């Protein structure tokens, strides 16, 4: 019979019973259920304590054989298994990978490749990591790491680091909590860009200034104020880019979903619509543009990490960005860019065209 772990969650949900074997085999699904019924991280930490209390045990999945060229090497002291949200979009999943990569470096563990989409895995070089095979049964030591609310969650990080010190070695695999957040994403973002451009070439574009605008729709509506931006937001950013570009010709490509966005663009600009396009091609076009105007979207921000051009992004955002003048922070008031932010956009575009 499967051992059951009880966890107290507070007044609203006084008790949740978790089947250890189910959580081991169905990890992500069980974790989704826990998060749905009790958001408190203390619950998951107590469940984690119960799951690992019995000491080393075998996983239901493990890395494949190294002889095939895509499995775990026999020299690593331990491995980190990322756990992206199973129903999230590609942008969210890539952001989750960036966080997991950063965590793996902090802990000194080798990141495992958890297969998601053959196309996307190949596009971004995620399959360059040793592969984890969930169907394999000749297991290794497998442990759940406690959830953390971010890099500054010192209590959680003390538990995580202590667990890795205690259980590490002997080819241990540590399963990261689902969508573990990492505020500092510079390291993972740079690594993702390195892998991406190993597999792609920047299109040879000359002449007009190439501007990409990502207007997030489809999965958001006006009521989702954290993610939805009115057309006026993008129009003002475009006007600032045009002001900085002076007489330089512009091509504005609008990437969106559903109905064509009613966005007014500078009169001299040529407009190209990319509606419900192939996300692989859309990502490449956004990452290859001279100027990228993002939405509050992980898809946008991933393109920004890949980009070698100017990235206009809103501040605040939940994670940090690399230092330097390539990322331009836009502060808003009543959902629209401030005058100072627009002035900085125009100045930076002008400076780049001069050089």
Outline the structure in words:
The radius of gyration is 23 Å and the shape is elongated. The chain is an alpha/beta fold. Helix 10 (298-306) links the parallel strand 12 (291-293) and strand 13. The longest helix has 18 residues, at 90-107. It has helices at residues 20-25, 27-37, 41-52, 90-107, 118-123, 154-167, 186-199, 231-245, 279-288, 298-306, 339-354, and strands at residues 4-7, 16-19, 62-63, 78-81, 110-111, 132-133, 142-144, 172-175, 209-214, 250-256, 270-275, 291-293, 310-314, 327-330, 332-333, 336-337. It is 37% helix and 17% strand. The strands form five sheets. A six-stranded parallel sheet has the order 11-10-9-12-13-14, sandwiched between helices. A four-stranded parallel sheet has the order 5-4-8-7. The protein has eleven helices and 16 strands. The termini are far apart. Residues 1-43 and 54-75 have low confidence and may be disordered.
* Number of DSSP helical runs: 11
Derived structural class: alpha/beta
Q: Strands across the major sheet, in which order?
A: 11-10-9-12-13-14
Mean pLDDT: 77
The amount of beta strand, in percent, is: 15-25%
N- and C-termini, Cα separation:
70 Å
Helix share, percent = 25-40%
Low-confidence stretches: 1-43, 54-75
Order of H and E elements: EEHHHEEHEHEEHEHEHEEHEHEEEEH
For the biggest sheet, the summary is: 6 strands, parallel
* Rg, nearest Å: 23 Å
Approximate shape: elongated
The count of strands amounts to: 16
């Amino acid at each position: 019979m499967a051992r059951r772990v009880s966890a107290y969650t507070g007044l609203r949900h006084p008790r949740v019973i978790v089947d250890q074997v189910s959580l081991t085999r169905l990890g992500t699904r069980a974790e989704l259920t826990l998060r749905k019924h009790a958001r408190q991280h203390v619950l998951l930490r107590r469940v984690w304590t119960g799951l690992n209390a019995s000491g080393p045990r075998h996983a239901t999945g493990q890395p494949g054989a190294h002889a095939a060229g895509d499995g775990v090497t026999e020299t690593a002291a331990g491995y980190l298994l990322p756990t992206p949200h199973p129903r999230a979009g590609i942008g969210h999943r890539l952001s989750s990978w960036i966080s997991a990569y950063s965590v793996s470096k902090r802990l000194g563990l080798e990141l495992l490749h958890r297969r998601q989409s053959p196309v996307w895995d190949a596009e971004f070089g995620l399959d360059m990591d040793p592969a984890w095979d969930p169907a394999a049964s000749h297991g290794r030591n497998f442990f759940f790491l406690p959830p953390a609310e971010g890099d500054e969650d010192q209590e959680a990080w003390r538990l995580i680091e202590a667990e890795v010190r205690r259980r590490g070695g002997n080819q241990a695999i540590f399963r990261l909590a689902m969508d573990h957040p990492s505020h500092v994403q510079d390291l993972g973002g740079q690594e993702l860009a390195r892998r991406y451009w190993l597999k792609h070439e920047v299109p040879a574009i000359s002449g007009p200034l190439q501007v990409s605008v990502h207007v997030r729709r489809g999965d958001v509506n006006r009521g989702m104020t954290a993610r939805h931006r009115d057309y006026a937001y993008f129009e003002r950013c475009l006007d600032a880019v045009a002001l900085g570009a002076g007489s330089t010709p512009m091509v504005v490509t609008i990437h969106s979903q559903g109905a064509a966005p009613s966005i007014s663009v500078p009169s001299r600009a040529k407009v190209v619509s990319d509606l419900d396009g192939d996300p692989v091609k859309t990502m490449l076009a956004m990452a290859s543009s001279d100027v990228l105007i993002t939405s509050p979207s992980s898809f946008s921000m991933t393109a920004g990490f890949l980009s070698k051009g100017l990235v206009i992004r809103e501040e605040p955002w939940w994670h940090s960005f690399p230092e330097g003048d390539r990322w331009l922070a836009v502060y808003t008031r009543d959902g629209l860019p401030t005058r100072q932010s627009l002035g900085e956009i125009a100045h930076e575009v002008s400076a780049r065209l001069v050089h």
